[in-house]
Design a protein that fits this description.
Blueprint (H helix, E strand, L loop, with lengths): L4 E13 L9 H11 L8 E3 L3 E8 L10 E8 L31 E10 L2 E8 L5 H13 L9 E5 L3 H10 L1 E9 L15 H18 L4 H8 L6 E6 L9 H17 L4 E7 L4 E3 H4 L2 E7 L9 H17 L6
Length: about 325
């Protein structure tokens, strides 16, 4: 069976504390301290309601070297929970679920996260039920508590690291127009850890309403199923620009400027934001929030990513960011 491809996003994040609550040790050292106190996989378990329990499955050999980035593989599953099966070759008009029990002392793995940590900076790649980096933030906070680190060490947020030069261009030149692009298929996918009140969710709901409207126009059930299989072929593009362009009322332009700065941080992987400044420059989502898409392969006959292959991609991205002068700016 050939290894199935998987396209993943590598997120560049920064652990941020309030100004008067910054611990004396770098974030990577805090994680190392927690791992020293919790040496076994079972010791690192933290309960997260949406995932079951989360723990550190593998530690890269470089973890023993404090002068090298710390790399970890995190897994999640629900102990005691059975997993349903699909009768791919069942010759019947109905497929019974036939759930399977997990082996003793194990849980079916529902999600993975792979991290590289250096100083206050993190690179994160997630798979399965972990759709964003919010779960990694929750887990690391719980890990610090489980290791009995000082309470103040858990008062952090993981925030997307940004290209300050591009952001300053956006702030200096202002926003002329914002174009948001996404597919109908993405409207069916649930994002974990995103603010439901943000523009991300608004644009997702808008696409879902468009999807529902198109589906209602098809009366035949089979044709509706065919349409559903092609949602990824239908693009939805929304452009926001004030009437009168740069001569619009000041409050209108200020509102657009604020929205543009929010969107470049907020828009998820399933959408793209293209902002044209009032000076004519173009800034895309990936220009401000530093991330990278990579093509990986799942293990042979196993629905998992290979930890060392993901770590290699994280190390490559880490090296590229350093060469660009974007790391730890």
């Amino acid at each position: 069976m050939p290894r199935r491809p998987a396209t993943k996003t590598l997120h560049y994040l920064r652990a941020v504390y309030n100004e008067n609550q910054v611990p004396p040790d770098p974030f990577a050292d805090l994680v190392r301290q927690a791992l020293q106190r919790l040496p076994n996989v079972g010791d690192t378990k933290v309960g997260i309601s949406s995932l079951g329990v989360v723990g550190i499955r593998q530690r890269h050999p470089d973890c023993e070297h404090p002068d090298r980035p710390l790399m970890l593989a995190i897994g999640a599953g629900a102990p005691g929970e059975r997993i349903g099966t699909f009768g791919a070759d069942v010759e019947a008009d109905h497929d019974d679920d036939l759930p399977e029990d997990p082996p003793e002392d194990r849980a079916f793995k529902l999600a993975d996260a792979f991290v590289l940590i250096e100083g206050q900076e993190l690179l994160v790649c997630t798979d399965g039920a972990m759709r964003g980096y919010a779960s990694v933030e929750k887990y690391l906070r719980g890990l610090f508590n489980r290791a009995n680190l000082a309470p103040a060490t858990s008062a952090f947020e993981l925030q997307p690291a940004s290209n300050q030069e591009k952001r300053q261009t956006l702030e200096r030149e202002g926003v002329k127009e914002i174009t948001i692009k996404g597919t109908m298929f993405a409207a069916t996918q649930e994002l974990e850890g995103q603010d439901p009140a943000g523009f991300t969710e608004f644009f997702r709901r808008f696409r879902k309403r468009c999807q529902d409207y198109l589906a209602e126009e098809i009366e035949d059930d089979q044709e509706r199923e065919v349409l559903a299989s092609h949602w990824g072929d239908i693009n939805v593009t929304t452009t926001i620009m004030p009437k009168g362009g740069t001569r619009a009322e000041g409050v209108v332009l200020s509102s657009l400027d604020d929205a543009g700065l929010d969107m470049v941080d907020e828009i998820p992987d399933d959408s793209e934001v293209v902002i044209t400044t009032r000076s004519g420059n173009t800034i895309r989502t990936g220009d401000v929030v530093l991330k990278k898409k990579v093509r990986l392969l799942r293990k042979e006959q196993q629905n998992d990513l290979d930890a060392f292959e993901v770590w290699d991609e994280l190390k490559t991205f880490h090296r590229e960011l350093r060469q660009r002068g974007a790391w730890q700016r």
